[in-house]
Amino acid sequence: MARVYLRILAALFALGVLAATVFGAFYIYRETYLPERARTQEVKEMLSSSAPKADPGRKQFDQAMEAIRQGDFEAARRQLVEITEVYRDSTRYQDSRRVLGEMNLDRLFSRAPMPGKLEYTAVRGDNLVEIAKRFRSTIAFIKRVNNLLGNIIHPDDRLILYPLDFSIEVDLAGNRFTLLKDGRYFKDYAITGRNLTHSKLPEQTVIGDKPAWLDGKKIRLTDEQYSAARKWLQTAGAKAGTSGVIFCPAPRAAEPAAVGAAPGKFQENPPGIYLSEDDIEELSTLVRVGTPLQFLKTAAPAPAPGAKN
C-alpha cells in the first residue's frame, strides 16, 4: 500500500514539475519573446515605410530661429554650425548654410567683438595700404568696418582690424563659390553662369590679382573711383604670362565674351565664372591676393544655364 502512495506522490510531483516547466516556458514566451518579436516587426515596418524619417536638424533649425527672434545670436549660431557640420542630410541644411553665412558676415562687418578682431591705434606715418598688408586684411574691409569715407587716416585713429585668412572652394557642379575660415564654412555665393576656355582647371591655386575696371581702365585700390569700378577676382596663371580663371559679374551685353585677350587687359565680357555684381563686390572686400582656392572638380564642365557659349 505504501508503495502505491509513493508512486502516486511521485506521479503528482512529476506532473507538478511538468506544469511548472510549461508555465515557465509560457511566461518567458509571453514576457520576452512576444515583445521582442513585436519590436523587431516594428523596426522592419519603420525601415520599409515610406514615411518621413526623423530629422533632428529641422528641430534644431527651428530652435535657432527662435533664438534669433529672442536676440540670442550666439546660441543660434552654435545651433546652425552643428546642423551644417553634423546634420548634412537634414531638409534644413541649405537654409542653415544661408542663414549662418549672413550671420557670419554681419558679425564680421560690425564693430562687435569676435575671435580674431582687434583694435589698432594709428600712429604717424601709417596708411591703409601698409596697415592692410601688415594685418592681412584689405583696404575695402578696413574702410567698411570703420566707416571711412576716404583713404586718409590720422594718428590716434582707432581702427577695428581682422585678418582675412579665408580659403575658397569652387563647386562648379553645384554652382557654388564657398568661403571657408580655418577650414570651416563661412559663406556661400551662387555661381550664375560660366564661359570657360580652360579644358582643365587646377585643383589648387591662389587668387593672383584683384583688378578693378572703370571705362576700360584699371583702377588702383587707393583711387577715389575704386568703389564705382567693376571688380574681378583672378587666379594665378598656370605659367608666366598666362591668365588664370576670372571671377566676375555676368556679361552685361548680349554678345559672347571675347576670348584670347592678353592677361590683365580689360574685356567687357571676359570668359570666366560669373557671380552677381553684389557678390563680386562683397568678395573683393573679403578676399586678399594670395588666398588659396580649390576647384572641387578639375575637369571644366559644360556652361551653366544662362552662360554664354
Structural write-up:
Strand 4 and strand 5 form a beta hairpin. Among the domains are: 93-164, LysM domain (Membrane-bound Lytic Murein Transglycosylase D, Chain A, Roll); 166-295, Beta Barrel (L,D-transpeptidase catalytic domain-like). By secondary structure, the protein is of the alpha+beta class. Helix 3 (73-86) crosses helix 4. The strands form three sheets. Strands 5-4-3-14-7-11-12-13-6 form a nine-stranded mixed β-sheet. It has a three-stranded antiparallel β-sheet with strand order 9-8-10. A two-stranded antiparallel sheet has the order 1-2. It is 38% helix and 19% strand. The chain starts with a helix and ends in a 14-residue tail after the last strand. It is globular and about 115 Å long. The protein contains seven helices and 14 strands.
* CATH H level, superfamily name of the domain at 166-295: L,D-transpeptidase catalytic domain-like
CATH class of the domain at 166-295: Mainly Beta
Mean pLDDT: 82
Number of β-strand runs: 14
Reported for the largest beta sheet, the result is: 9 strands, mixed
Topology:
Elements: H1 2-48, H2 56-69, H3 73-86, H4 93-109, E1 118-121, H5 128-134, H6 139-145, E2 158-161, E3 166-171, E4 176-181, E5 184-190, E6 193-195, E7 204-209, E8 212-214, E9 217-218, E10 230-231, E11 233-235, E12 246-249, E13 272-275, H7 277-286, E14 292-295
Parallel strand pairs: 3-14, 12-13
Antiparallel strand pairs: 1-2, 3-4, 4-5, 6-13, 7-11, 7-14, 8-9, 8-10, 11-12
Task: Pick out its properties.
309 residues, alpha+beta, Membrane-bound Lytic Murein Transglycosylase D, Chain A, nine-stranded mixed sheet, three-stranded antiparallel sheet, 7 helices, 14 strands, 38% helix, disordered C terminus
